[in-house]
Every structure is written in structure tokens, then in C-alpha cells.
Amino acid sequence: MYGPTPDDWLVANRAMWDERAPIHAASDFYDIPAFLAGRDPLRDFERAEVGDVTGRSLLHLQCHLGLDTLSWARHGAARVVGLDFSEPAVDTARELARELGLGQDRAAFVAADVHEAAAAVPDPAYDIVYTGGGALCWLPDLEHWAQTAASLVAPGGFLYVAEFHPLTDVLDGPTGSRVEHDYFNRDAWIDDTPGTYADLGAATVDNRSAEWQHPIGEVVSAVAAAGLRIDFLHEHDLTLFQRFETLRPQDDGTFRFPPGAPRVPLMYSLKASRPRS
């Protein structure tokens, strides 16, 4: 149901994620035992576009359980910091870092609202500020988010976003072939569906949440207005879950349209840099 942004949206969203964090940690969807054994949850295009992180510092905003955050440490980042507003999610991320033998000097996690990141994280700036995979839809004000994210990018560093494409939110669920929703809608999507994408049958109590749709132009404009230089905006024909029934699972764990079928972008990625001077 679409409607005005509720006054308690942050409280409701945090309660929803707090309840779901332990469900996700125990789920086959996240498969933490496989992650601890070496599985890399980062997507091929992310690793290619971010490039070599060896010796660099990386801040992951809205990191959830920290699997992607810790994966960047595995790929050589000198220090990774993950931030999420859910205490149970951050607790899980800290435990995973301990199990991987990564001390606070290599992997630190902070529980805070993303808009308060500048005051909450241990370092004033990072070589790479990273976010994505269903993060921006939980924020009503992208200009505020972009100003915060940009303020944490060190000179010579960059912001990297890998997100679900907003076009998928306006297409019909079964096939992705018809436009059924308004691409430019700015109302909040208020949902109270029980369960979670990682366990559809999970018994949950805190089900009310609010999400927002952000067209590509809004994202690019917010990042540019925050003082970063747009390096690229790429669109991708893959996604991380079966968004439409017609999508087919791939060997790398992603989903794509079948061969020969018309395609639309399912994800996008954006890189924006801060010049050294």
C-alpha cells in the first residue's frame, strides 16, 4: 500500500530488521557455514568494477550481517568497517569477524543509523565507501544519504553503489513484461507481510515497514550534488533473486532472463570519485 511517509518509519524499519537478523543468520539463503568455509558472496561485476582493494580502507554502509564487508577484507582490504542500524545484525557481523580471525584493526562493525555514519564510524574518511543490494530503498531522502556518504570518501577515493534497478519495481511480478506501477511515485510503500525473503515461512511479529522507490536520475543527481564526480553508471541484466517467474538461476547464484527473451536492466552500479585536489 502506498501512502505518506509515516512518522515512525525508522523505528518500524529497525524493529523489522532486528527481528529478521537472527532468522537470516540461520537461513540457507545466507548460508553462513559456506561463507565461513570460503564462499564469496560478492558479484563478479562488483569485484571487477571496484578493482583491487589491496591495502585500501573500505566502509560498507547498511552492511546487514557483514558478509560482503568481510569479503572485501578477504580480497585484501587493509581495513573494513561495516555500519548498520540493527544491533542484532551488527552482533552477527562481529561474531563472523572473530570466527575469521579478523581483529578490530582489520574489521570493525558499528551499530548506527546511516545518516549518523560520519559521527559513528572510527575513521573520518575511507578510500572506498560501498553500499548496495537493497539498501537505498529503505531511505526516504537520498540527498541526505548522498551528502553523508560523500563526506566519508577520502580524496582520491570513491563511492560505489550496486543496487536493484528501480525499473523492476514498476513491472508486473510474474513475467516482468508489463508496466503496472508508477516509476515516478514518491510515496512510501507500507508493507506488513510476515516472513522474510530469506525464509518466507518464518513466524514474525514486527512486520510493518516502509520503503521508497528511487529512479536512476534521482540517485545520480544526489551523488553529483554531494560533490562527487560520476565515473560511470552501468546497468546489468542479472539480479540476486527470482524477481520474476521467467528468470532463470545461473551457476554463479544470480538470475537472468532466458536466452532469446527480451531483457530489461535488473541491477545497476555507480561509481563516483572525489578528486585528490
UniProtKB/TrEMBL annotation:
Its EC number(s): 2.1.1.222, 2.1.1.64
SUPFAM superfamilies in the cross-refs: S-adenosyl-L-methionine-dependent methyltransferases (SSF53335)
One Pfam family cited in the UniProt record for this chain: Methyltransf_25
The protein's name: Class I SAM-dependent methyltransferase
Any one GO molecular-function label of the UniProt entry: 2-polyprenyl-6-hydroxyphenol methylase activity
Domain of life of the native organism: Bacteria
InterPro entries named among the record's database cross-references: Methyltransf_25 (IPR041698), SAM-dependent_MTases_sf (IPR029063)
Enzyme class: transferase
UniProt keywords, alphabetically: Methyltransferase, Transferase
GO biological process terms held by the UniProt record: methylation
Domain Methyltransferase: 59-157
